Amino acid sequence: MSEPRISVVIPVHNGERYLAAAIESAVSRRPFEVIVADDGSTDSSLGLAHGFGSPVRALPHERCTGIAATRNRGVAASRGDHVAFLDADDVWTVDALRSQLAAFAADPGLELVFGHVQQFVSPDLDEASANALRFVRALQPGYLAGAVLIRRDVLARVGPFREDLVTGEFLDWMSRARELDVREALTPEHVLWRRIHSSNQGRRRADARGDYARVLKSALDRRRQAAAEAPPEGR
């Protein structure tokens, strides 16, 4: 049986500071392709991605449309039968993809495989800024985009990421996937290092935290609709 072809999608917007490390960690896992999906960057992110050559492909876009739309463009341009996502400021461990592929091989019915994630303070932060940060430092189950490997047909079945959300788009996607009873597993291996730095999306866009409430409301609305459409018991 041939090895699964994995497409890695890296969305980036003005991420030149950390992008090279993210691309290098993805390429070292030997995927079928790495798609750097640009989101209207005005720095050297796109040129940096072009400089890597095969298997890296740079996907330009003239204006900023948000991470959900950028991920969707990356998926549309990808050709693998599995898709993985990596943020432009994070890096994978040596166990990334390998342990997830092993889980798929052990149980071919799986459709999503997560790994564990650990957060770290970016070395470029000064000591005072680093000491002011508050976050969980222990290894945690990684229910986020950078720690999951997804079968392509699942992406098609669940549908694209919601482009009207500034944040919480992966939480929304997972909610819809679970409503479809997509089969998932969590491996014990550490697969993702999540970088904590001064310009993380959650820190820059605190104004968008209301999107999480919108995600929750959408999920509740879908459940109410499903309950209303369900046939009465005993029929």
What would you note in describing this structure?
By secondary structure, the protein is α/β, with parallel strands linked by helices. It has one domain: Spore Coat Polysaccharide Biosynthesis Protein SpsA, Chain A, CATH 3.90.550. It is built from nine helices and nine strands. The chain has helices spanning 16-27, 45-50, 67-77, 98-106, 127-132, 152-158, 169-179, 201-204, 210-229; strands at 6-12, 33-38, 56-59, 82-85, 91-92, 112-121, 140-141, 148-151, 184-196. Strands 1, 2, 3, 4, 5, 6, 7, 8 and 9 form a nine-stranded mixed sheet that branches. Helix 7 (169-179) packs parallel to helix 9. The longest helix has 20 residues, at 210-229.
Number of helices: 9
Mean pLDDT: 90
Domain count: the total is 1
- Poorly predicted spans: none
Distance between the termini: 45 Å
Could you give a short account of the major beta sheet?
9 strands, mixed
At CATH level 2, the architecture is: Alpha-Beta Complex
Return the CATH class.
Alpha Beta
The number of E-state strands comes to 9
The CATH homologous superfamily is named Spore Coat Polysaccharide Biosynthesis Protein SpsA, Chain A
Strand content: 15-25%
Shape: globular
CATH topology group:
Spore Coat Polysaccharide Biosynthesis Protein SpsA, Chain A
Class of secondary structure makeup: alpha/beta
